[in-house]
Amino acid sequence: MGSEQADPFVNRDTPIPVVSVTGPDHHSAAASGVQTPSNNNGALHRLSPSRLKDKLDSLGSGESPGRVSDRIFTMLLSSVLPSEDLDDDQNGSPHVQVKDRRSRSYVDRPNFSLPVMSSNFRRFNSRIGVAFVAQNRAIRLFTWRTPTHTLSFLFVYTFVCIDPTLLAVLPLACCVFFIMVPAYLARHPPPPTHLPTDLYPLDGPPLAAARTVKPAPELSKDFFRNMRDLQNVMEDFSRGHDAVIAFLTPLTNFSNEALSSLIYIILIFTSCSLFIFSDLIPWRFVFLLAGYTLTALGHPAIQDLLAPPPQSSSSSTTTSPSDFLSAQNDALRSQLLTLSQTDITLTTSPETRSVEIFELQHRPLHSPQTAEYEPYLFSPSTYAPMSPSRIAGDRPKGCPFFEDVQPPRGWRWADKKWTLDLLSREWVEERCVTGVEVEIEGERWVTDLVYDDLVDDSTDADSSERGLSTASSQDEKEVLRRAWEVGRPSRMGEWRRRRWVRAVERVPSY
Predict the structure, then answer these.
(1) Per the record, what is one GO cellular component (predicted)?
(2) Higher-pLDDT residue of 292, 21
(3) Are 32 and 72 in contact (CB under 8 A)?
(4) Lower Cβ count inside 10 Å, N or C end of the chain?
């Protein structure tokens, strides 16, 4: 009685199931050396937990159980999980368009490791029993296994709905009645019914050691109970996840844009209405009615009504409540779809924009006025006299033919050919281009102006030595700017350009 009592917190409502290793040709079973079941004369050999533990202990050749379990879990995980580093946005690959908020670039957490994974799983499985105990108690409560418990819960729920401030008291009351009282009764156990009560006074010295909770030992029955419950919880979560996704995804992912737009409008309208009129809704009555309804649905009589009728050989026209609810769900979806097709009008034409290209032509600066301009290239910039690239002495960049001009990434051509922009003065004024002459008729060329004084000063230079440095080019542009300001005589320069436009449309990503 004086030794400390420490029990694992696990679900002991049902006995531990028989553990069997199925599949005589299973690679992991063969690799581990565990005897697989064989079908001899129709009898299936099963492996109990104690025998399985003995087999696992024999694998360790005298090693500790923790070491053996660590090796077993590492082996199992390594057979199903990839060994490469699964971290973080594909090393910055440009093809990754969606950000992973679980990446270590957002939260610094340890990287994936098989030994750490197996160790954490064993520690987690040893301590998860309290969650399964709470889950089973909730199942028994809401399935009316003990009607007095369920009715007591409804009374407490009613008091909380009537006076929501009791929510602050509820956690403290749960701590007192579900933690403190059982712990006290463990140290001061009640007297047996066949003995006098005065031999076991509750105010006397404690008769037992304080109970503590410890993790379930590895490879014990409690450990396997936790694994069984964890397996079932994973299946329940997967089923619930798939059901929610199957119900919500078609309504909200805009695969049917009219239907999703209608749902969006309904949600926006409901949100605005609740923002204004939420104070007028009797929320206590709403939550009270919802709680009673959900609890009543778990009653066995209600479950029998909702269960589908058994199949019989004779044809029956009886419709079960589940079939009725399914039919109502289909009818509601059909009404929403009809309403979305009737009242929601969407623009199905793709988004369109206009792109531009500048046709540049060139002639030597020291050529006569009668010299012809020759095609040079098609450039995305105007290459105006005072443009930064021109001042820096860079040559224009582009492609020599219209056919080489490509639409922007993610777009495609909406027109068959390029169109000359006849409003040359507008785009010149919009870009504040100076030192040019604009044609408002004809071919709409925008030509550089060069001044005679500057031309005369540079006519003596040899044509083979016309490649000026960046500093001399800047001096030349400064002379040009001053010549424009004083209004010196000018003539056509070496560059001229005109603007072409063409429509593009966005390419769908699917």
Answers:
(1) peroxisomal membrane
(2) 292
(3) yes
(4) C
Instruction: List Cβ neighbours of 89 (8 Å cut-off, separation of 6 or more).
Output: 96, 99, 100, 103, 105
Q: What is the DSSP string of 6-44?
A: EEE----SSPPPPP----TT-HHHHHHTPPPP-EETTEE
Query: What is the overall mean pLDDT for the chain?
Result: 76
Polymer length of the chain: 510
Residue with tokens 């419709």: 319
Q: CA gyration radius for the chain?
A: 41
Nearest to 384 by CA among 285, 274, 277, 496: 496
Q: Spell 320-357 as b/e; 16+ CB within 10 A means b.
A: eeeeeeeeeeeeeeeebeeebeeeeeeeeeeeeeebeb
404: DSSP letter: G
Given a contact cutoff of 8 angstroms between Cβ atoms, the answer to whether 357 and 341 are in contact is no
Q: Tens of pLDDT along 468-504?
A: 334 444 555 554 555 444 445 557 888 999 999 999 9
**How confident is the model at residue 44, as a pLDDT?**
43
For the chain, percent helix, then strand, then coil, each to nearest 5? Answer: 50, 10, 40
Spatial distance between the Cα atoms of 107 and 110, rounded to a whole number of angstroms: 10
The DSSP string of 99-133 is --TTSTTTS--PPP-HHHHHHHHHHHHHHTHHHHH
Residue among 120, 100, 95 nearest 110 (CA): 120
- Give the Cα separation of 504 and 405 in Å (integer): 12
DSSP label of 159 = H
pLDDT of residue 364 exceeding 60: yes
Is the alpha carbon torsion for 109, 115, 118, 119 positive or negative?
A: negative
Give dist(CA 292, CA 281) in Å, integer: 18
Q: What is the mean pLDDT of residues 67-79?
A: 65
Domain ranges of the chain: 352-458+470-506
